[in-house]
Input
Amino acid sequence: MTRILIQRILGAIWLCDGLLQLKPQMFTNGFITANISSNLPGQPLWLQHLLEWEIFWGSHAEWPFNLIITLTQISIGVMLLSNRYLKTALTLSIVWALLVWLFGEALGNLAFGQWSLKDGAPGAALLYALLGVALWPSADAPIQWNRFAKPLLLTLSLAGWLETAWQSWYYPFATTGFSTVPSHLFALGVLGALAALIWPRLRRLGAAGLIVLSIWAWITMQQAGQFWLPYATDFNSGALWALLALALYGCSSTKKALHITGSGEHSSQSA
Output
């Protein structure tokens, strides 16, 4: 699995997100009400103030507000797909994703305390940013898992398992749009994938487990983000979890990626 392929999949997702913003409903005040105002209840006071500021300005300039979002996300997608201005594209992807995570997803409701890995926590936008960091060009490794992204992925997976295990104790079955899923089985599956990720020899097994769990949750629980609805803005986090796990499955470790040439120069081996 090469870095360029993961990069282009991420670019395609960014492009689709930008195209979703072109729906007529997005250029109305309903977009602010449906996607931002609904995040206000229960948030810490400082976050409420930030969201209220965004709601004020966004509701007074619906067209420019949504047009900026649309053009930014389409631009990121096109640059990542074309592999041109790569560092600019990844920088914009990381910064924009974090802004969306703060202002659009209210930090994935983590500060609220009512979050669920199955329903989309910690927020799709945070995973966009994580992928942008992992894809940053480097001579040391095709994909930057060993330095930053892999520890963060493990942390998010562990937090998600703890949350899922707690829910499975109090709510043995999670009712979704398509089916009733045994929560304790999902918790055990996340734990198994997490355990495999910790040991390098089982990395691919753990990544494969995360891919299966992510796609299962994405289809049965998140319903692909219900992107067909008027105010849906993305595909939800399940697709991004699967892409993260896919990158982890195919990447090479830093040591294996380095080769010493006869002249003493380093060349990187693709994953």
Notes: The chain has a mean pLDDT of 77.
